[in-house]
Specification:
An 8-stranded mixed β-sheet has the order 4-3-2-1-5-6-7-13, with helices on both faces. Strand 1, helix 1 and strand 2 form a beta-alpha-beta unit. It contains 13 helices and 13 strands. Helix content is about 35%, strand content about 20%. It binds nicotinamide-adenine-dinucleotide. Pathway: Cofactor biosynthesis; biotin biosynthesis.
Length: about 350
């Protein structure tokens, strides 16, 4: 009942770790993976170790996919050895239509995890449209960050329901893990005053291995927005990182935790704030990820429930663990005929 086949769209910093983590979940079988230039499919189960070894240090990004505009800003391909990204695996093939190729196989796939860039707000919603157009009736799940994308998915609710799709959105770390945790912590209160999320991430592997994540975060710095971040060259991104000595601090981030907590009835979106510190030169976290939920209890006490993540938990662990847990819950809902758009505060991850 709980055996699940999954396709991973995007095998960059996050998607690679999704595949790696799946090897620790015997109920989860990756059967397809793609990046901008390649696809690997095996409905009996991909050889994840071979795929990861073949693509280590070899992340395809930049332009190349017919029908898909440049969605991730960069034009560079980090490449070592033959082939590019997934296509370098013996299981992989080059393609100019990676997402359509996965869609063609999707009748046999229970869930599709989108570890794709989100620099064009409507990219993930448009990918969802393509699955709807093909009559897909499983689970779509993303780890997107931006608040405004949730509305674009809500606009598609009817089509998703008609298709029989359960769409779980914003199911990474923040939003995702921390949103769900905040929703639980809020249960002490009858009135929630504020939810403050402050994350710390250390990524020694830096921009090179986490292009989508770092580029999207730069859009939150003063003087930058999503459009300027998308257009920046890799050298310009590196220069911003150098200017900050590798440590980027963010306040008032447009992270969808706010709208996802509001749609779950926890508090107003305006009462949620998200900020964080990213160190791209050290694995050690520059600050401890902390969530503070302040409110008033039914018996009139004002208090703050606080929870923190262990400093040794990596971003990859905190994005992919919850994403796979939310995926499992999404598949259970889908198999019970529950379709539509759901955020992490509306459902809790399975284990
Ligand atoms: N919610 C969270 O806590 C959280 C944390 C980290 C990252 N993220 C999100 O995860 C996403 C992925 O981040 P990343 O660092 O892995 O990015 P990345 O740039 O390292 O990887 C992106 C992958 O998508 C592929 N891709 C790009 N355009 C494509 C297309 N048109 N068709 C097929 N494949 C395509 C690339 O080839 C690459 O494999 C981003 O949207 C980021 O914001 C969320």
């Amino acid at each position: 009942m709980d055996d699940i086949t999954v396709a991973v769209l995007g095998t960059g910093g996050i998607g690679r770790r999704t595949l790696e983590l799946s090897t620790h979940k015997e109920w989860l079988t990756p059967v397809a993976a793609c990046d901008r230039h390649g696809i690997a499919v095996d409905h009996e189960g991909l050889d994840v170790t071979e795929l990861l070894d073949a693509t280590e240090g070899n992340i395809a990004s930049g332009d190349g996919g017919a029908g898909d505009p440049v969605t991730d800003g960069g034009t560079a391909i980090k490449q070592s050895g033959a082939g590019e990204g997934v296509a370098a695996s013996v299981q992989g093939d080059s393609t100019t239509t990676p997402i359509d190729d996965v869609i063609a196989e999707s009748g046999l796939i229970d869930a599709v995890l989108m570890a794709l860039p989100n620099l064009e707000h409507d990219f993930i919603p448009r990918v969802a449209d393509r699955f709807v157009g093909a009559g897909y009736d499983g689970v779509l799940i993303d780890v997107l960050k931006r608040s405004r994308v949730i509305g674009l998915l809500d606009e598609r609710e009817e089509q998703l329901v008609d298709s029989g799709i359960t769409f779980v959105c914003g199911a990474g770390a923040t939003p995702g893990f921390l949103t769900g945790g905040a929703a639980l912590a809020a249960q002490s209160f009858v009135d929630v005053e504020s939810i403050d999320i402050r994350w710390g991430v250390g990524l020694k592997s830096g921009y090179e291995d986490n292009r989508g994540t770092v580029r999207e975060d730069i859009a939150h710095l003063d003087g930058y927005d999503i459009e300027t971040a998308r257009e920046m060259t890799d050298a310009e991104i590196e220069a911003v990182i150098d200017d900050h000595d590798g440590v980027l601090e963010f306040t008032d981030m447009e992270h969808a935790d706010d709208v996802l907590l509001e749609r779950a009835g926890i508090c107003d979106a305006d009462d949620v704030s998200v900020g964080g510190v990213l160190d791209v030169r050290n694995d050690e976290k520059p600050t401890t990820t902390t969530v503070s939920v302040t409110g008033t209890t039914f018996d009139g006490e004002r208090a703050t429930n606080t929870f923190q993540l262990g400093d040794a938990t990596s971003m990859a662990a905190n994005v992919n663990g919850p994403a796979i847990g939310y995926l499992k819950t999404g598949v259970r809902m889908n198999r019970n005929g529950v379709y539509g758009v759901f955020g992490p505060a509306e459902l809790l991850p399975g284990f």
